[in-house]
């Protein structure tokens, strides 16, 4: 919690003074009773002492005072507010190393299942696009609100080829820029048609609304082994465009996969994820890096991402809440005083 006028909290010094004054008055009460010399008669005249109930209304008034004095400082809280619209580009590695079985049942199967978790975790107004990369890159699904379309595309993925991570970043950034400028991807992309043509019509009609944010999620399970661009060099374009790239390293350092070499022979090779590069990409673009050595952790990562991406954190003033609580305490104190003693304290 923070405060717009923190110096106003100095007013809370009144509270201990008020408490001290109340206690001092309570200590003097026996002295007034002692002045009545006929104590037997006093017992018949005065009702039975209210005990602890006598202090309850005063305590409630004191708490109300705390609430009002705190309200003067105009308290604020950081609250999570759901975003109405955004576009998420899921960039998935489909290289041959995704056949590795260190993540059960395979890296590819775990990524497909977790991808569906992300799709379901995002708010309904979000569009989701799917970009895949191995030796080359392509847009498999243009951003859409049709969850079933994206899930079907995830089911169709087949691991093969090398890992062109740098080219994939360049492709995703170019796609994001096209979305921000025109609302659609390039007509030359290999895409599945979007189920939201109304968005494109609005843009074509000259809709001047602010561009919705575009967020890139990059999942990879290996080092860059193909393509023409180094991943960190490609990240520079994302930095210039102000695009966050959340990165996920799938797999373990001891993962192995059966791959086919250039001569058509199959051999088993180690395929550890490049966590260092992925972490640096996330840091440079002011996003977050996640390590997912198991299918369960990958599921958890996507669930976490869905909640973080779908909400904004913003400061909201909650002065009204403190004033309302103070008013309720005053009413409660007055009501109890009337109920128990037929008077206000």
Can you give a write-up of this model?
This protein has 345 residues and is α/β, with parallel strands linked by helices. It folds into 2 domains: 2-78 and 316-341, no CATH class; 84-309, Rossmann fold, CATH 3.40.50.410. The protein has 11 helices and 11 strands. Helix 4 packs antiparallel against helix 5 (147-155), helix 4 packs parallel to helix 10 (295-309) and helix 6 (165-182) packs parallel to helix 8.
How are strands sequenced across the largest beta sheet? 5-4-3-6-7-10
According to CATH, the homologous superfamily of the largest domain is von Willebrand factor, type A domain
CATH topology of the largest domain: the name is: Rossmann fold
- Coarse structural class: alpha/beta
In the CATH classification, which architecture of the largest domain applies?
A: 3-Layer(aba) Sandwich
Poorly predicted spans: 186-210
Percent helix among the residues? Answer: 40-55%
CATH class of the largest domain: Alpha Beta
Order of helices and strands: EHHHEEHEEHHHEHEEEHEHEH
Report the strand count: 11
Largest sheet: 6 strands, mixed
* Global geometry: elongated
Question: What is the overall pLDDT average?
Answer: 82
Q: Cα-atom Rg, whole angstroms? A: 32 Å
What is the overall number of helices?
11
Distance from first to last alpha carbon: 33 Å
**Beta-strand residue percentage:** 15-25%
Overall tally of structural domains = 2
């Amino acid at each position: 919690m923070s405060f717009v006028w923190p110096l106003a909290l100095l007013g809370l010094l009144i509270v201990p003074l008020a408490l001290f004054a109340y206690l001092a008055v309570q200590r003097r009460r026996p002295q007034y009773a002692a002045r009545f010399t006929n104590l037997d008669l006093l017992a018949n005249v005065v009702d039975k002492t209210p005990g602890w109930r006598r202090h309850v209304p005063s305590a409630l008034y004191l708490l109300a005072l705390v609430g009002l004095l705190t309200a003067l400082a105009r308290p604020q809280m950081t609250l999570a507010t759901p975003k109405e619209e955004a576009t998420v580009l899921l960039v998935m590695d489909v290289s041959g190393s995704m056949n590795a079985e260190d993540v059960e049942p395979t890296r590819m199967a775990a990524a497909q299942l977790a991808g569906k978790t992300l799709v379901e975790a995002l708010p309904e107004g979000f569009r989701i696009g799917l970009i895949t990369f191995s030796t080359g890159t392509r847009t498999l699904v243009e951003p859409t609100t049709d969850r079933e379309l994206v899930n079907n595309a995830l089911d169709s993925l087949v691991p093969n080829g090398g890992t062109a991570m740098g080219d994939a970043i360049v492709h995703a950034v170019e796609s994001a820029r096209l979305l921000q400028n025109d609302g659609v991807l390039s007509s030359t992309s290999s895409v599945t048609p979007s189920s939201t043509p109304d968005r494109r019509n609005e843009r074509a009609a000259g809709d001047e609304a602010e561009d919705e944010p575009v967020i890139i999620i990059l999942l990879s399970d290996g080092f860059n082994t193909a393509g023409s661009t180094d991943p960190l060099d490609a990240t520079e374009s994302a930095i210039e465009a102000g695009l966050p790239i959340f990165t996920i390293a799938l797999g373990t350092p001891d993962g192995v996969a059966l791959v086919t070499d250039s001569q058509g022979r199959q051999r088993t090779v180690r395929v550890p994820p490049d966590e260092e590069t992925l972490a640096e990409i996330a840091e440079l673009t002011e996003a977050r890096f996640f390590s997912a050595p198991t299918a369960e952790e990958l599921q958890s990562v996507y669930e976490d991402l869905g909640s973080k991406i779908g909400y904004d954190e913003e400061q909201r003033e909650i002065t009204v809440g403190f004033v309302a609580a103070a008013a309720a305490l005053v009413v409660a104190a007055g009501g109890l005083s009337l109920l128990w003693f037929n008077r206000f304290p």
